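Late entry, written up from scratch paper. The run itself happened at the end of the previous shift, but nothing got recorded in the book at the time, so transcribing now.
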Amino acid sequence: MIVVGSAEMRAIDRHAIEIAGIPAEILMENAGRAVATAMEASFGLLAGKTVCLLCGKGNNGGDGFVIARALSGAGVQALVWSVSAPGTLKGETRLHHDLFTRTGGRANRLTPSSKARFARDVSGSALVVDALFGTGLNAPIAGFLARAIETVNASGKPVVSVDVPSGINADTGAVLGTAVRAALTVTFGHMKAGLVLPPGSVHAGRVVVADIGLPEVSTTRVGPRGGILSESEAGAILPARPSAGHKGTFGRVLIAAGSTGKTGAAVLASLGALRGGAGLVTIAHPAAFRDVFEQKTLEAMTLSVGRDRDTFFNLSAVDSIRAAAAGADAAAIGPGIGLAPGTAEAVSALVRDVACPLVLDADALTLLAGKEAAVRRRRGITVLTPHPGEMARLIGGRVEQVQKDRVRAARDAAARYGAVVVLKGAGSVTALPDGRYWINRTGNAGMATGGTGDVLTGLIAALLAGGLPAPSAAPLAVFVHGLAGDLAAEACGTTGLIASDLARKIPRAFERIRACR
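Output as recorded:
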């Protein structure tokens, strides 16, 4: 599924109207009627019920007038509140306001002095339609309009938002001052990034993408860069496992991980790789933990590297890891390796010398922060998997900046490091150096626990080792990882879910998406 930002959507609309020649008033008519149809599909027959509509002065408000006219024609009492006087409305918004009023409708004027009547209409309605602000909003909502939104939210009535919930930034999902909390959002043409990224995804409720007649050529000419994987799209990417395959067929993964107090990270990464379908997985670990890993692992092989008493990676481990990587189809470095000075030297050497596809995670990212050239010079594919704190270090910013615009942060890092970047967290973003990106919709709050990122590292490495190119392997792994988390939550709830619960559900997640091909 395509995901667009507000500028891309405006460009698609502009092409459809100015180049393809579709009148704007027809697109608005289609949009409003699509919302009315979605309302009945979601909430049942509305005839005989009362619906309160809050209409802004722009195109979003024009959509609202169309909805009111469509509902009125279906036997619904449409109580319309407009924030603007009719004479100030322009273009197709004025046209559809006038069509509503000429066909028997009435538009009340929402002002500070009419707020009590508005509140009564909201409380007496079965549904509320939010057609106040759309994708063009770029400043915080304040004053009596903010209070009107708060009245709607406090009413407890189901709210249907038009295109995006009023107050949500369509690009980032940020709340601009205050925002409507919708039960249903009907968005037009394509999914908006701000409806998938939190907190916008929370405010949007269920999202329906409505076809309003925008020609495919308009989208093609603009060339949106974003996407969301569905189960069927994920299934189409997932390679078949040949019935005559053997261990070597499904890829060899090397994982360099672990240090004092963090051996579990290595084991969880290996579990992610094994559950991800890798044929052979080897954990390279500091030699002091030989006995620990021999006891902790069953299916994964182990490789002790460095001096016998080493509890962290240093330059003495590099030759052994480099040799092992030469026989691997993909490698991962970082889970639980720590931040010792010797480890920094070892990571830099391995990034330089390992030629196979490489996933860099956790402490390896911190050690490589600011070393864009070293990563860009790699001969092989590189995937970086930062959480917001690690991302802030990679791009030299603050966590707040990263979270304020997750898509921009991920695309920035991908361009700087010449790598595929997976920015983890709610609404994980996978970005490529060429600017393409995917926002993930699977996963849940139960996954916010130690070790789940290590499982993801191993899973990405497994898909790379199985032959998938990084632009497919990374977003697919993120999708499957989140789906496995959802399956684990169904089985045991979100409170107390642990990383190994998730890893055990990865095969079931694969099975589910294969069934959707």
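The domain at 231-236+250-514 is CATH 3.40.1190.20 (UDP-N-acetylmuramoyl-L-alanine:D-glutamate ligase).
(Scratch paper discarded after transcription.)
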